[in-house]
Amino acid sequence: MTQSSEQETIWLTQEAHDKLVAELEELRGPVRHEIIERISAARDEGDLKENGGYHAAKDEQGKVEARIRQLEEMLRRAEVGTPEDDGTVSPGMKVTIRWPGDSDTESFLLGHREIEDDQLDVFSPQSPLGSAILGARVGETVTYVAPNGKELAVEVVEAVPYAG
Q1: Which of 17, 21, 44, 90 could lock onto 12 through a cystine, CB 3.0 to 4.6 A?
Q2: Residue 157 · residue 89 · CB < 8 Å
Q3: If residue 72 lies in a helix (H) or strand (E), which one and from where to where?
């Protein structure tokens, strides 16, 4: 898999995928219906220029429709499952890194922010660190430019499929 196709694919755990599907169904159904009813009721009140309820409902409708589009796009690009366990960093891996000159290590999940894990931070493959280590193998040191403009180096200590 090339880096560009990995960035097009969003790796999700089954739990995260199911949560997003449920949220999408809720937004498309009951939430959308309730907002339409509020807009209709506010429209029946008359003058729309000074109708705060109407404008608030229209604003909320815009936010809900944007979230629906975002969820549809994420789910269209989603890959659910376990990445190959070959020591190469890819989305869906628990990655352990070490900063040069430091004996401490740091572990995180390389995946989409929609994945929640109380024990592990989640870094996007599109983040500066995530994109730098994508495709790196255990034992390799890679450099990247941090958001503050500093060039940093990091060693990949371990890359294993995330077990949830």
Answers
A1: 17
A2: no
A3: helix 52-77
Q: What SS3 class is residue 67?
A: helix
What is this structure's pTM?
A: 0.66
CA distances to 6, 24, 35, 46, 63 from 58, in Å = 36, 19, 8, 15, 9
- pLDDT tens for 43-90 read 887 777 777 888 888 999 999 999 999 999 989 988 887 777 888 998
CB 88 within 8 Å of CB 94: no
Q: State which amino acid sits at residue 101.
A: G
What is the residue-wise DSSP string for 6-61?
Answer: HHHSEEE-HHHHHHHHHHHHHIIIIIHHHHHHHHHHHHHTS-STT-HHHHHHHHHH
Burial readout 89-127 (b: 16 or more C-beta within 10 A, e: otherwise):
bbbbbbbbbbeeeeeeeeebbbbbebbebeebebbbbeb
User: Dihedral sign, CA of 99, 105, 106, 108?
Assistant: positive
List, as own/partner pairs, every contact residues 53-58 make where C-beta atoms lie below 8 angstroms and the sequence separation is at least 24, other chains included. none
